[in-house]
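Ion transport domain-containing protein: structure tokens wanted.
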Amino acid sequence: MKSDRVAELILVLDILFAVDIMIIFCTAYYDDEVKLIDDRKVISKNYLRGWFFIDLFAIIPFEFLLNSTAEFNHIVRVTRVGRLYKLIKLTKLLRILRIMKEKNKFLKYLNDFLRLGLGFERLFFFFLIFMLLCHYSTCLWVTIAGLQNDKGFDGTWMEDLHQ
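Answer:
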């Protein structure tokens, strides 16, 4: 059941990445000379010369293709496509790194636009880190409850919580 949920999550992420590709084809950008480029033809050429193929490989649902048939799995094993699959999974990581780089540009622009002070920025990031730590500690408590017995959450505080 967990694998079905993970597969659904991966599918949703692939769909979001596909929507992102469509948005990028319609999004203006600033070139090196800080000139706004809003011509769709130029935007498309720039994207096709840059990250498009990496983004495209990142959204192909290889999880579903590799699990489709036993005959296909035999072909995959013979041709060692598994290694290629692992490399393609790294493209998603490249996308995330690119998004993080763009996030820094966006945060700088937002900071300049809102003229936020350094104190507010530190408070915001402290709050963000605090919420992340709360999330991780909750995940740890749920994991501990699941490890208490072999039947999952039966007889633990998690069972009491969900009644």
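The chain has two domains: 2-115, 117-163. The beta strands are 29-30, 36-37.

Cheers.
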